[in-house]
Amino acid sequence: MIRFECDYLEGAHPLILKRMEETNFEQTAGYGADPYCAAARAKIQALCGGTDVEVHFLVGGTQTNFTVISAALRPHQGVLAASTGHINVHETGAVEATGHKVLSLPSDDGKICADQVRKAYEAHWNDKDHEHMVQPGMVYISHPTENGTLYSKEELKALHDVCRELSLPLFLDGARLGYGLMSEESTLTLKDVAELTDVFYIGGTKVGALFGEAVVIANPLLRKDFRYFIKQHGGMLAKGRLLGLQFDTLFTEGLYFEIAKRADELAMRLKQAFVKKGYELRYDSYTNQQFPILPVGHMEKLKEKYSFAFWEAVDKEHSAVRFCTSWATKEEAVDELIRDIEAL
After folding, report:
1. In a 10 Å sphere around its CB, with 0-12 CB exposed, 13-18 middle and 19+ buried, how is residue 57 labelled?
2. Are residues 130 and 161 in contact, defined by beta-carbon separation less than 8 angstroms?
3. What is the C-alpha end-to-end distance of the chain, expressed in Å?
């Protein structure tokens, strides 16, 4: 079985495993107070272009999302997010379990816009019963989105501006950030993300690391006691140097960006093959996630040899599915899939 259903199927980049083995018997301080975490922080801060940011390392995406959101919100507040957003549909109510409601906004392509945020904010405060309702206290987006789509720099700036005007922190989920930044359609840099959000994270789990996410906090108001929140939510890894070492490796000589770009390039080859075959695409993604709409018969045929994710039924005869490439996808696997697509 050749697997394309997600981008965290393999272990870690060989350079990370090599450094883990080389440093295995070193003794360092715990909980992120080690030289490797310090080096990784410095590299990330430099890539943020001089923007004043604080960097913390957590273990996984869901843990990172609910830790950041619960740290930023007061008890009566919720977080605005796309109806398709990861925190709304794929985290088993993790945010709600911390006592904060996800306030969903309609979205077909995975994105939300500044106007939606403003309208939701004004609808709350213009309601005479607003004190009996969950107050919007934060905005969550992801880049790329759950549907593989991207925010342009102009769209992100518009969100930043309205959030700043309304005093709503803007949080960007970057579980797949590398694949978004290295997309051929990207108009954003890491420096842009640091300047145009209050807090974001750089995903490692899906982009070459064994595990780990790097939280980058630009807004000084969100930094207070953040390590307390990490500890309380089970995110403070005793062997924290394992996180720092991985991110230090990923951000040495551009490795993170190199492996993300390669995954995007392989995904674009798949996209071209789907389009050439005549399949429509559920979303026009330029990232490592591709969403062709397949006839059910073709889908069942491909399932004999490949694993991929069912996304949604389009009609009785067609379904949208997701194929993911990753930092570790083999070119020969993509070649084989393309040949089998052409033969359908």
Report:
1. buried
2. no
3. 18
Beta-carbon contacts of 299 under 8 Å, excluding residues fewer than 6 positions away, are: 319, 321
Kindly report the pTM of this predicted structure: 0.97
The partner residues of 196 in beta bridges, in order of sequence, read none
Signed CA dihedral, 287, 19, 246, 252: sign only: negative
Query: Per residue in 24-59, pLDDT tens?
Result: 999 999 999 999 999 999 999 999 997 799 999 999
Specify the residue for token string 């696997």.
333
Please state the three-class secondary structure of the chain as a single string.
CEECCCCCCCCCCHHHHHHHHHCCCCCCCCCCCCHHHHHHHHHHHHHCCCCCCEEEEECCHHHHHHHHHHHHCCCCEEEEEECCCHHHHCCCCHHHHCCCCEEEECCCCCCCCHHHHHHHHHHHHCCCCHHHCCEEEEEEEECCCCCCCCCCHHHHHHHHHHHHHHCCCEEEECCCHHHHHCCCCCCCCHHHHHHHCCEEEEECCCCCCCCCEEEEECCHHHCCCHHHHHHHCCCCCCCCHHHHHHHHHHCCCCHHHHHHHHHHHHHHHHHHHHHHHCCCECCCCCCCEECEEEEHHHHHHHHCCEECEEEEEEECCEEEEEEECCCCCCHHHHHHHHHHHHHC
Residues 87-145 pLDDT 10s: 999 999 999 999 999 999 999 999 999 999 999 999 999 999 999 999 999 999 999 99
At position 338, the amino acid (one-letter code) is I
Q: Which is nearest to 36 in space by CA: 25, 47, 48, 23?
A: 23
User: Which residues are registered as beta bridge partners of 315?
Assistant: 318
| β-sheet bridge partners, residue 80 | 103, 139
Q: Which residues contact 219 (CB under 8 A, 6 or more apart)?
A: 169, 198, 199
What angle (nearest 5°) sits at the alpha carbon of residue 37, between those of residues 219 and 21? Answer: 150
d(CA 54, CA 42): 10
Distances (CA, A) of 2 to 55, 262, 302: 37, 18, 10
Q: Are 146 and 176 in contact (CB under 8 A)?
A: no
Contact partners, residue 109, CB within 8 Å, separation at least 6: 145, 147, 149, 283
